[in-house]
Amino acid sequence: MPLLAWKPEYELGIPDVDHEHRELFDLINELHASLFEPESLTTVPGFLGELFSRISSHFALEERLMRDGRYAEFPAHKSDHERLLDEIRDLMDDFEDGGYVDLGRFAVALEQWFSVHFSTHDAALHRWSASSG
Ligand SMILES: [Fe+2]
Ligand SMILES: [Fe+2]
User: Fold this and answer.
1) Which ligand number lies closest to the CA of residue 81?
2) Is 113 a domain residue?
3) How far does the centroid of ligand 2 lie from the alpha carbon of residue 9, in Å?
4) pTM beyond 0.85, yes or no
5) Given phi > 0 = left and psi -120 to 50 = alpha, else beta, which region is 37?
6) Predicted confidence band at 1 (pLDDT cuts at 50, 70, 90)?
7) Distance 103 CA to ligand 2 centre (A)
8) Distance, CA 13 to ligand 1 centroid (Å)?
9) Residue 52: which of 66, 71, 31 has the closest Cα?
10) Which of 24, 44, 66, 123 is placed for a possible disulfide with 74 were both Cys, Cβ 3.0 to 4.6 Å?
């Protein structure tokens, strides 16, 4: 069973952003599924790297929209993005140092991060984008 289930309320109505949100969900589900594969220890670093770069480029897209539109909540939204990227970076460091991370817990944390971020920061971004047309 996939870890993350897409919900209609995640849909922001900004097509580029929605498309990337769905892709991130798929990637996180794949990461979660791969944890149960016997070769998971060797595939994990690549997966984390891929996840990090896809998430950063998604955040860059939103941040560009906000910067271009002089969105007032830009700093708070961006700092929530940075908090998640820091967490992923820490995890990659831990993996390099000790060869082990609790990815099951990480996947759950990601799930929580995304549901909260979607329903707060990204939803507000959507309301702003809809009203500034
Ligand atoms: Fe987003
Ligand atoms: Fe965001």
Assistant:
1) 2
2) yes
3) 15
4) no
5) beta
6) low
7) 23
8) 12
9) 31
10) 66
5 confidence band (pLDDT: 50, 70, 90): confident
Q: Give the CATH number, domain containing residue 52.
A: 1.20.120.50
Q: Residue 22 corresponds to which tokens in the numbers above?
A: 């769905």
Residue 108: CB partners within 8 Å, gap ≥ 6? Answer: 3
Closest C-alpha among 51, 14, 45, 11 to residue 29:
51
Task: For residue 72, give its domain range.
Answer: 15-132
Residue 78 or 45, more confident: 78
Distance between Cα 64 and ligand 2 center (Å): 11
Residue-wise pLDDT tens digits, 82-111: 999 998 898 888 888 876 777 777 777 887
- Separation of CA 38 and ligand 2 centre (Å): 34
The amino acid occupying position 69 is: G
- CA separation for the pair 125, 53 (Å, rounded): 22
CA 43 to centroid of ligand 2, rounded, Å? 27
At 121 the pLDDT is 95
**Which DSSP symbol is given to 8?**
G
Domain count, the chain: 1
